[in-house]
Amino acid sequence: GENVEQHPSTLSVQEGDSAVIKCTYSDSASNYFPWYKQELGKRPQLIIDIRSNVGEKKDQRIAVTLNKTAKHFSLHITETQPEDSAVYFCAARASGNTPLVFGKGTRLSVIA
Amino acid sequence: DTAVSQTPKYLVTQMGNDKSIKCEQNLGHDTMYWYKQDSKKFLKIMFSYNNKELIINETVPNRFSPKSPDKAHLNLHINSLELGDSAVYFCASSQGGRYTGELFFGEGSRLTVL
Predict the structure, then answer these.
(1) Min CA distance, B70 vs chain A (Å)?
(2) B8 DSSP assignment
(3) Cis? peptide before B8, omega within 30° of 0
(4) Strands A62-67 vs A101-102: parallel, antiparallel or unpaired
(5) ∠ CA(B22), CA(B9), CA(B111), 5° rounding?
(6) Is the CB of A31 inside 8 Å of chain B's CB atoms?
(7) What are φ and ψ of residue A75, in 5° steps?
(8) Residues A44-47: contacts with CB within 8 Å, 24+ apart?
(9) Best residue of A37, A40, A100 to probe chain B, by most B CBs closer than 10 Å
């Protein structure tokens, strides 16, 4: 089945700097790659996603890139703010009858 | 108007007991799920349920059993609770056929087994 590796496990940045989180996946048939943000004590919520027919997608300060050949995708957050502090999860879904498989999460701390 | 709701939010119980967590979604979604989040925040799929078809993660002990009275509900029943079952359990749902589309999560149910 699909296996998703996520790095780093923790990340601290100064407010205003950029943050990058990277994920790799194992199943070349995977075609959907969402990113979820989980604030302390709350539920995970989708912040951005990308499908395998697209190489990059942006939404204001966040962007996701996908390299299908290398089987990796990344989340980029620019001009970080304290409210960006949370745990971020990448995920991948292989085609067929399999659910989303999540990476182990990255705890991002934005220091004011 | 909570989209995916779970009860109870907190559950503290003794080893060996049996407990249930209820989940309801009012989004009209086709598929519902249960995920387990352990102390290290790892989100792991336990079950998915679509049109009465249940897909079970093979690593889930058979002490865990999902029950779906209808399309909008997927409850989780756990028998003979063990210390290692302590975690936050998230219910989720999605639309667009099996495994497609955004996952909407409930608020989570924190289970503590003493």
Answers:
(1) 20
(2) -
(3) yes
(4) unpaired
(5) 90
(6) no
(7) -110, 130
(8) A44/A89, A44/B43, A44/B90, A44/B103, A44/B105, A45/B105, A46/B102, A46/B103, A47/A88
(9) A100
Q: Is B73 exposed, middle or buried (0-12, 13-18, 19+ CB in 10 A)?
A: middle
| Cα A65 to chain centroid, rounded | 10
pLDDT tens for B6-49 read 999 999 999 999 999 999 999 998 889 999 999 888 999 998 88
Identify the closest residue of chain B to A37 by CA–CA distance: B105
**Partner-chain contact A107 B100, CB within 8 Å:** no
Check A43 against B90: CB less than 8 A apart.
Answer: yes
Residues of chain A with pLDDT under 70: 95-97
Cα three-residue angle B44-B65-B78, rounded to 5 degrees: 85
Which residue, among B93, B91, B111, has the nearest Cα to B103 in the 3D structure? B93
Task: Decide if B100 and A100 are in contact by the 8 Å CB cutoff.
Answer: no
B49 at A interface, C-beta within 8 A: no
Answer whether A98 sits within 8 Å of B44, measured CB to CB. Answer: no
**pLDDT at B51 (0 to 100):** 72
Instruction: Chain B: give the shortest CA distance to residue A59, in Å.
Output: 16
**Shortest CA distance to A9 belongs to which of B42, B108, B12?**
B42
Q: Which of residues 7-26 of B touch A (CB under 8 A)?
A: none
Cβ neighbours of residue B48 closer than 8 Å, sequence gap 6 or more: A99, B31, B32, B33, B54, B55, B98, B99
Q: Please give the structure tokens belonging to residue A107.
A: 């705890």
